[in-house]
Amino acid sequence: MEVFAVTNEIKVSVQTEFNDHHSRLRLHQFVYDYHVSIENLGTNSVKLLRRKWIITDAHGIERIVEGEGVLGLQPNLNRNEIHHYSSSCILPTAFGRMRGHYIFEKSLLAEEFLVDIPEFKLEVPFLLS
Q1: Rounded distance between C-alpha atoms, residue 44 and residue 11, angstroms
Q2: CATH architecture of the domain with residue range 2-121
Q3: What is the pLDDT of residue 82?
Q4: pLDDT, tens digit, for every residue of 62-87?
Q5: Judging by beta carbons within 10 Å of its beta carbon (0-12, 13-18, 19+), is residue 33 exposed, middle or buried?
Q6: What are phi and psi of 124, to 5 degrees?
Q7: CA–CA separation, 23 vs 72, rounded Å?
Q8: Whole-angstrom distance, CA of residue 103 vs CA of residue 70
Q9: Are 114 and 5 in contact (CB under 8 A)?
Q10: In the chain, which stretches have pLDDT less than 50?
Q11: Among residues 53, 51, 39, which one has the least CA distance to residue 10?
Q12: Is 28 left (phi over 0), alpha (psi -120 to 50) or beta?
């Protein structure tokens, strides 16, 4: 299932999947892959500077992950350009959720602005039925 949000003319779309191959259920290590698309719908060129993720497991325990760029990159996006990347998250529970935001900069104005990352669920599909 894909979720998306548009903030300040930037569209962020996320798709998730449970990674059965890398998970270790008996050790309570549930691996989830997520695929992100970031699209510049505005007229200004922008640069992704930083990210902040809030990862919550089924017990309500939150973990915050912050850093520069995504996967070591600080991509520049011109009008209508899209940046795709994939990453993963390990939880101690079979269910959880993630949300967060990116900090972008308008290239010509050196003005920073926030872009929401929509909340998405992390679920083991065979436990849902």
Answers
A1: 14
A2: Sandwich (2.60)
A3: 98
A4: 999 999 999 999 999 999 999 999 99
A5: middle
A6: -85, 115
A7: 25
A8: 11
A9: no
A10: none
A11: 39
A12: left
